[in-house]
Design brief:
Helix content is 37%, strand content 20%. The chain is of the alpha+beta class. It comes from Rhizoclosmatium globosum.
């Protein structure tokens, strides 16, 4: 009995994750220190900022704006810096909220942009959720990476541009000595899933935590170490 091949098709994170409360407070505290330091005559920015860093450029821009202000004009206060920072965080959170509306659509590749998501499909014959290709055997004389490419195209169409991370499997699942499934990793670069209704009935792009619920405990535990 020839083994099977499953494809771990991944979409890497597209955006940075939202800042935690601690990270937000730290950045606010750091900006306040930088402002206070800019008003200290003995301060040497070369000892405080890494040369060429974004933070150094930010400080230099702030320092230059203060140096060219007239004596009568008010200097930038820590309250102003705090207000600007809060406004920036609010704008980021507003953007995150807009994208979160897409998170409910598990068929959309544009969901959970701050997390990696993985493609899972539902077999029409068995009704079980699994990685693409898990229910297709390797053909005689076929290499693993060739079988992985074929299984994706046969189940999810040819409208996706994918990139194989390597030609060797990242792991395998062995239900018995003669029943093995090798897992090949691929990244999606562009395109969308175009299901073959004769092979699969549904698909979903899920995070690792969501896969545990969709695949079931036993099947998830078999592949969780390679996700």
């Amino acid at each position: 009995m020839l083994p099977s091949v499953a494809v771990l098709l991944t979409r890497n994170p597209v955006t940075l994750r939202p800042l935690s409360a601690f990270e937000t407070a730290y950045l606010q505290y750091r900006d306040t220190l930088a402002l206070k330091a800019s008003n200290t005559k003995q301060f040497s920015h070369d000892h405080f900022f890494k040369k060429g860093s974004i933070l150094q450029q930010k400080w230099l821009a702030l320092h230059n704006s203060l140096a060219h202000s007239s004596p009568a004009s008010p200097s930038i206060s820590s309250k102003q810096v705090e207000d600007e920072f809060i406004a920036a965080v609010a704008a980021i959170n507003e953007t995150v909220e807009k994208f979160s509306a897409k998170d409910a659509d598990v068929k959309s590749l544009d969901r959970k942009l701050a997390d990696p998501v993985f493609l899972v499909v539902k077999s029409k014959s068995t009704g079980k959720w699994s990685l693409p290709g898990s229910f297709q055997q390797i053909k005689q004389g076929e290499l693993l990476h060739e079988a992985a490419k074929r299984s994706i195209e046969e189940s999810c169409g040819t409208k996706m541009e994918t990139w194989a991370v390597g030609k060797i499997p990242i792991g395998h699942v062995a239900k018995s000595e003669k029943d093995k499934t090798f897992i090949m990793k691929q990244l999606i670069l562009s395109g969308q899933v175009d299901l073959n209704p004769s092979v699969v009935s549904e698909h979903a792009w899920l995070t690792k935590e969501e896969m545990k619920e969709k695949l079931g405990k036993e099947d998830f535990e078999a592949i969780q170490d390679v996700i």
